[in-house]
Design a protein that fits this description.
four-stranded antiparallel sheet; 9 helices; about 350 residues; FAD/NAD(P)-binding domain; 2 domains; Polyamine Oxidase, Chain A, domain 2; alpha+beta; single chain; eight-stranded mixed sheet
Length: about 350
């Protein structure tokens, strides 16, 4: 027995599959596995759906502070069109956005699946042919024969390494896990600092002239992209502006104080955009440590260990022309397909 995010008791769950991470990849895999009749325990440390498709509320305004918009590719276009029919997506020029926020796309991907939000899996132990997800106190959250890891590779490595401290007694599994972690270590994301600004109605009106909401390209100084959220379909008009810093600037300032980062990005926006300091109502910064996949991991799992990997850095190599959200979604499909092969000859739970 462990504690949930609200301090109450949280019982351990027996399942067919544990899914860690309920962003677009994990949500897609979990829904397909539940639809196939499997008992699935889904955990995410966030307070609700989104991951890097999050929509964050600051006071009475909502900001798409992660992915600004999505580019459709192949069968991912069909899924976005399905989401549009369900009222969870809208076209915006050549791009797509979630409605009323980007996180609506992840909620659509989840369907009837209800993850356990606000739960941090701190270790993943492989023992006796089963996976045990443990919390920060080492208490079991869930036990299952299969595992889908749909989190950034450095976080996945950390959970597996932490699980080793609980012991396994299986030398073969230990070697295989070491090889898995080595492969995951090849993947790389660049970080991005984001600033969430509220600006006055007059400033928002000036920014809105010619704005698509999809985000301008290279701006100036530390800024890479600017998005006027209230120019997107289905958004409230609250003067929401999202600034994304360049990756190289974000790397150089990765561990800076968030308030100091917000001040610097606001100053840069005043230099680069038709707004002045008196028109900035509020500003907060958010660090995306694993924002942009720049090098992928070709490995997608290990059938002997019954582990499937998913995410925007999984299943591709550099130069493949990957759009991150499309890759995350496809990796969720592929992870679910891999898991189903493990139980093909077994009755569903």
């Amino acid at each position: 027995m462990s504690a949930n995010a609200n301090g109450g008791p949280e019982a351990s769950v027996d399942a067919d599959v544990i899914v860690v991470g309920a962003g677009l990849a994990g949500a897609t895999a979990a829904r397909l596995l539940v639809a196939a009749g499997h008992a699935v325990a889904v955990f995410d440390k966030g307070r609700g759906p989104g991951g890097r498709l999050s929509t964050r509320r600051v006071d009475d305004a909502a900001f798409d502070h992660g992915a600004i918009a999505l580019q459709a590719q192949g069968d991912f276009s069909e899924w976005l069109a399905e989401a549009e029919q369900a009222g969870a997506a809208a076209r915006m020029g050549t791009a797509w956005v979630g409605v009323p926020g980007m996180n609506a796309l992840v909620q659509h991907a989840l369907g009837p699946v209800r993850p356990r939000w606000g739960i941090t899996v701190a270790a993943l132990q492989r023992a006796g042919g089963r996976w045990i997800a443990r919390d920060r106190e080492g208490q079991p959250l869930a036990v299952a024969t299969g595992l889908v890891l749909a989190i950034p590779p450095p976080q996945a490595i950390a959970l597996i390494e932490a699980g080793r401290s609980h012991g396994s007694g299986d030398a073969t599994a230990a070697v295989a896990l070491g090889a898995l972690c080595a492969a995951l270590g090849d993947a790389q994301h660049d970080p991005v600092w984001a600033a969430l600004l509220r600006v006055s109605a007059a400033a928002a009106a000036r920014l809105r002239i010619g704005a698509s909401g999809a985000g301008g390209g290279v701006v100036d100084g530390p800024l890479q992209r600017v998005s006027l959220d209230d120019a997107k379909p289905g958004r409230a008009d609250a003067g929401q502006v999202v600034l994304h810093a360049r990756s190289d600037w974000s790397i150089a300032h990765l561990d800076d104080d968030a308030e100091a980062v917000a001040d610097r990005l606001v100053a840069a926006s005043i230099d680069a955009l038709p707004i002045n300091a008196s028109e900035v109502v509020s500003a907060v910064a958010h660090r995306w440590r694993y924002a942009l996949p720049v090098r992928g991991c070709r490995l997608t799992g290990d059938d002997a260990l019954r582990i499937a990997l998913a995410g925007d850095a999984i299943g591709w190599e550099a130069g493949a022309g990957v759009h991150a959200a499309a890759q995350a979604w496809r990796s969720g499909l592929e992870a679910a397909a891999r898991v189903r092969t493990w139980y093909a000859d077994q009755p569903k739970s």
